[in-house]
Write the structure tokens for this entry.
Amino acid sequence: MEKRRGKKVMKNEGEDDADYAWWWLIHKGVTVSFMCIAVFAFLVRVAVSLHPYSGANNPPKYGDYEAQRHWMEITLNLPPKEWYRNSTNNDLNYWGLDYPPLTAYQSYVHGLLLRSFHPNSVTLFTSRGHESYLGKLLMRWTVLSSDAMVFFPAVFYFVAVYYSGHHSGRKSDIVWHIAMMLLNPCLILIDHGHFQYNCISLGLTVAAIAAILSKRDLIACVLFSLALNHKQMSTYFAPAFFSHLLGKCLKRPNPYLEVSKLGFVVLGTFTVVWWPYLHSRDAFLGVLSRLAPFERGIYEDYVANFWCTTSVLIKWKRLFSTQLLKLLSFGATVSLCLPSMVQQIWAPSNKGFLYGLLNSSFSFYLFSFQVHEKSILLPLLPASLLALEEPFLFGWLTQFALLSMFPLLCRDKLILPYMALFALFILIFYLPCGRRDMRETPSPTTLKSFVMKFLVLCSLVCHIVYLTMRPPEKYPFLFEAAIMLLCFSQFMLLTAYTNAKQWKLSKPGTLMDKEKKLI
Amino acid sequence: MEEKTDYSNKPLKPMSNFTWFGLVATCIKLLLIPSYHSTDFEVHRNWLALTHSLPLSQWYIDETSPWTLDYPPLFAYFERFLSIFTKFIDPNIVDLHMGLNYNTLSVIYFQRITVIVSDMCLFFGIYRLTKKLGYRRRLMIWILVIWSPGLLIVDHVHFQYNGFLLGLLLVSLSYLEEGRDLMGGFVFAVLLCFKHLFAVAAPVYFVYLLRHYCRAGLVRGLRRLLMMGVAVAMVFAAAFGPFLYQGQIHQVIRRMFPFGRGLCHAYWAPNFWVFYIILDKGLAFLLRKLGFNIQVPAASFTGGLVGDSSPFAVLPQITPLTTFIMVLLSISPCLIKAWRNPQPGMITRWVAYAYTCGFLFGWHVHEKASLHFVIPLAIVAVHSLEDARHYFLLSIVSCYSLFPLLFEAQEYPIKVLLLLLHSILMWLGFSAQFTETAVTKVSAKRGDSAATKKGGFVIGWIGKSYLLGLLVVEIWGQFLHPYFLGNRFPFVPLILISVYCALGIMYSWIWQLKFIIKSP
């Protein structure tokens, strides 16, 4: 079936060499192309994993790598009840576990793997700050295998669902989209360079999104609950999931039953995951307090969100109490994602849902409490799912997301993979004869293109200045602040654009068209 | 309407395909910089140091490091040229004594980047060779050569400059295919002065140039012969002249041809001699069972260093002269063909065949030398379905035979993924190319595309089971052998790889020989 379609495409496009450019890759069907791109994407990940991780050779605290290793050590050697509790065996001040239980279970499983090959790397106490060739290798392989087992199949599921049925798009567009999703430079750099397991929570989220698109709402609830239980950061998507599912339920004949079914599934999943901590109120609240580290302040380092950027003018941390700031940030976040939620409750649609994910994650990134640079991965995920509809948005966001993480990656000594992956991203984004719209889109007006060129130049200058110059003594973080300011302005503009776009979807005529195309 | 006119005026011109392929490969090469590198890395660092800090007269005499200079002079000049840039990076790199086993980030980045930059030569060669071909063939050749897993493994992980040298070979071949024989011969002479191992194809070049270039009447022929002679002599004079002047030519030659090294490298390259050794061991074993008194040879093949004493228990010893005669004999069919009918369309095949013979029967052959014929064969792989089938098999075998070069666990997924990706791309590319041509042929005849099945890219069952066998060999060597036998017989997996790959290379040799004999 796939084969025949491929031939038809080829015949329609005839002798044109430009069309052959990628025809050879797709003529065996999307599945084979997916395999091919997946192998390439995996190769890139393995190559990035050769590079140093965060906090390599940097005692006493090391970095995220040591945190993950320490969690394996703790979960492997202590009973679950002790994992989140401060004790003589578990010093919570030294990289205490502060992710939900699913991360702890994942650490336990990976710890088992490490113990069977290299017991020294996970023994209690003595393995603190353990660094070795084999240790690094095994740790890297745990991330690689999680990526291969969670993120890749999830993307495949998404592609299968999103492009099933009578999709009118060209196959080369689909293949380009797969490459964009699998070769997202930010995700690769953070997971396989810096060292984290975002691929698991993001993979679960992608799978949940795919389940919603294929109308399996209950499965979507399970998957998204698991994502929430792997990283609390997945809450960034919660408003979108909530509003979309609620909107869908309200459209059905028996809304109460539908909502309660979903509610039970979510509660059930949470109960299973949290089982060891449900025996007493104290244990439950103990874990919960570990997950919400309010004492760390409203922002850390130089993250390109509202609080951090405006702190150049208003010293939030000094002027307001933490309690008030909590309220303020909560109010701001909710009010920014409210329009998108209302739209989804009023007129739930698949495309609207994807925009809703983007909007709610943006509002969290920009306004919520305690945001990290790495959280830009969350808005990037729905943007990558929308890459074919919004290529410009995706390219622009990726570019500035990379810039916003540049100081962090510099500290991790990942400049080389940063540059290589950035280049690779640009190469695939502007694939010769790749996307149809590249050949057909109108060039932007002169003013717009001038502004765009200027911004790209700014970003380039930021990179070069940050690498080569020393900041003045008086303002040691001048360059970080400049990068943050530039990125924040772009993120704000993109948020405004995506919100407007989502609302435009619900205009009667267009909605029908889009729905038809998607289903 | 106004917007419509803007449509044609694209803001972003799609990068030309060729640059795109090259740049993607460069990104991967950059990512591979921190990977494992072999002692060849230190060899080349030492050459940088000794050419930088010693006068020319000392280059082939110096023995500060065990990794003495054993490439021809042009390569030494090349290293001297590269060493100029160390001044801006880290002068310690080229310090003859301080730099020994120097392993900081600066030297790794510097040397790796020199390899990446020198690959421009490969890109240029492949660009020259493919610029006149149809788009589809061109694309396939780019995929095969620019993304060659073998070159990535040997040059960018293991560390060598093969991309650069093979680039020179491709440039020379591209001139010959165009009919510009003088330039072709000149570039080949340059290549020989960079790395003399490429001399295996010299007889083919000699016969071909003599018959193709110099066959133009007596006077013109003689004049051309003279011109070619002068061009080649100039290259050699430029390379070896200074050493001749110093009276060191003997020393240079001795360094370049270290015959004391033995028939096989520590890891046996998958060639004919593997069978010879296995046969010897088998015979010795059998005869001992039958009650004959067979001496255990003093030198062993599995011990690593192989000395001068005969390592064979039963079969006659092999000397460099034997291998030389065997190589020449095996090349001779192709020489006869080149003598009778020197045609530019065949030269790439002949040269590749000569390197195959050199690889199979040569003295002290490295497994890396299989690149010398796999890369040129990529040029002809797109010509016909049989070529493509043969190349598919050969390329996988040759890449697999390089696996033992990267023995550390860190690079294991890299080499496996490279080979896997290469196989998928080859399969997709060849099947697209050949089903596609089948379709156009049929539809041109009949006007419909009903009979598109004809002549697709399919590997026969023998080929398939052979390739599956590779998987079995790998699984045995990596998992089952350590599991069942532990640390005993650590050389068995390596021998297994050599023997199994040697079968594939032998097949390729016979296939090429048959093709050459059958050709008009």
The CA atoms of residues 394 and 505 of chain B lie 7 Å apart. The two ends of chain B are 61 Å apart (CA to CA). The first helix of chain B runs from residue 2 to 8.
